[in-house]
């Protein structure tokens, strides 16, 4: 007999064989009496020294094990198969080093814990993935290393877990009842891409029957409200609205027209014209012609057609363009503005950079110098903008809007709303290279409150 095992010697095992709920005879043991056979067992006693598991729940009607594998050298080997139907422990988080060595985790463990956000649509079993930070609001598993998570989730910027429905619900909770949780609005909308914010706005409308932009307008105010509202609009709508505001009332903000028309793709220009017609009931091209004049009007008319080259640079064509610009400008008395307009409004900024390189080699000065010498006013600014790469252009526009007394918040809001975080980071690098200090530093000095916090999150 075995000493020290359970049950004590001479007593029947639990449960007794043949009674309801008893274990079936073990399959695969050598028959008693044959060489190498185990002594007859009374019930199912664990072997000597087999440590009982602390807190192991009592088994109620434990289901029979199918095809219990033959044991080689009892006690059980490492790799003990998972028991079918083993009840998961309610809310018990996985601990480091658990389960005991050799006992594989049961499929789908751990079970969902109370309050844990639902997995994104289509997420595999075991969400969230091992090693990833828990979504905002989810309790960290017991014993897991503490990670400092400063944003809700970054979606396309590198973290998992973007769920527009869950973000919409979070925004609703932040605006429901008395007061508004502005920090939560910043945390959700400030870290999403433009495309993701549009999905959130769509989900919000589907769930609550109200436009997210209207909800934000009701719950916030000032420049903070203006920036939030634009963040949940499509980019071409933001640009259409910006053009409308540029031409509304007395006078025209010509620089705003340049901001949009010189730094927009051909495809987006077509979308802008369609949106303008739908929202304001007038033809954008006709409206611009009625608000501008002279060479500035001609240049804008070429740009609004959306016919600028967008393909790779042809260096041979760039060399010829450099010669043509010289002949139309500095070589002659007066300026052939039609030639200037044709070249500068039909070529891409990258192509015009190549033209500039040839102009420097041929004439010892830049093509920008030629523009400044031959043109003036808004017409000059437009041609220079056509020659400037997007990141450099908006870096300088931000510097202008922040310089001097006061801040041009309308320009600041526009630039922040139409760019995703990677683009804003590229603009910030150009800003620092040009001006010797960071964009964040200058914005902090010119903004305040939740408005400043939102901008910092967008630039982060």
Automatic annotation (TrEMBL):
The entry's cellular-component GO terms read:
cytoplasm; nucleus; plasma membrane; vesicle membrane
Biased composition (Pro residues) is annotated at: 9-18, 101-117
Annotated GO MF terms: calcium ion binding; calcium-dependent phospholipid binding; phosphatidylserine binding
Has keyword Calcium? yes
PANTHER family given in the database record: ANNEXIN, ANNEXIN B11
Q: What is said about the domains?
A: A pair of annexin repeats may form one binding site for calcium and phospholipid.
What name does this protein carry?
A: Annexin
What species is given as this protein's source? Planoprotostelium fungivorum
- What high-level taxonomic lineage is stated for the organism? Eukaryota, Amoebozoa, Evosea, Variosea, Cavosteliida
């Amino acid at each position: 007999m075995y000493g020290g095992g359970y049950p004590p010697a001479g007593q029947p095992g639990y449960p007794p064989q043949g009674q309801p709920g008893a274990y079936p005879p073990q399959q695969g043991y050598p028959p008693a009496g044959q060489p190498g056979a185990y002594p007859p067992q009374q019930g199912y006693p664990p072997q000597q020294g087999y440590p009982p598991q602390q807190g192991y729940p009592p088994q109620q009607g434990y289901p029979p094990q199918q095809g219990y594998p033959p044991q080689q050298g009892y006690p059980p080997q490492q790799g003990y198969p998972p028991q079918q139907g083993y009840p998961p422990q309610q809310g018990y988080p996985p601990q480091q080093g658990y389960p005991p060595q050799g006992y594989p985790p049961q499929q789908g463990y751990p079970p969902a814990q109370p309050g844990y956000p639902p997995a994104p649509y289509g997420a595999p079993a075991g969400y969230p993935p091992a090693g990833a930070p828990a979504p905002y609001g989810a309790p960290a598993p017991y014993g897991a290393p503490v990670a400092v998570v400063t944003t809700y989730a970054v979606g396309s910027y590198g973290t998992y877990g973007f769920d527009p429905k869950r973000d919409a619900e979070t925004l609703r909770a932040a605006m429901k009842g008395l007061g508004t949780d502005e920090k939560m609005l910043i945390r959700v909308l400030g870290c999403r891409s433009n495309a993701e914010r549009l999905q959130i706005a769509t989900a919000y409308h589907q769930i609550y029957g109200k436009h997210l932009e209207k909800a934000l307008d009701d719950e916030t105010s000032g420049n903070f409200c203006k920036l939030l509202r634009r963040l949940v609009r499509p980019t071409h709508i933001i640009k259409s609205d910006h053009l409308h505001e540029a031409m509304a009332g007395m006078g025209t903000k010509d620089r705003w027209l340049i901001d949009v028309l010189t730094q927009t793709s051909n495809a987006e220009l077509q979308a802008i014209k369609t949106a303008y017609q739908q929202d304001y009931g007038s033809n954008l091209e006709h409206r611009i012609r009625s608000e501008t004049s002279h060479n500035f009007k001609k240049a804008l008319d070429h740009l609004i057609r959306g016919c600028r080259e967008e393909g790779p640079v042809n260096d041979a064509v760039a060399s010829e363009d450099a010669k043509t610009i010289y002949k139309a400008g500095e070589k002659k008395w007066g300026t052939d503005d039609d030639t200037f307009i044709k070249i500068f409004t039909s070529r891409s900024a990258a192509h015009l950079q190549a033209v500039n390189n040839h102009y420097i080699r041929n004439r010892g000065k830049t093509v920008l110098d030629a523009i400044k010498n031959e043109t003036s006013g808004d017409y000059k600014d437009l041609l220079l903008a056509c020659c400037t790469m997007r990141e450099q252009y908006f870096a300088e526009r931000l510097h202008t809007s922040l310089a001097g007394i006061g801040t041009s918040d309308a320009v600041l809001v526009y630039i922040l709303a139409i760019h995703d975080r990677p683009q804003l980071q590229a603009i910030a690098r150009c800003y620092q290279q040009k001006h010797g200090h960071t964009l964040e530093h200058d914005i902090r000095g010119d903004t305040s409150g939740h408005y400043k916090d939102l901008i910092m999150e967008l630039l982060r």
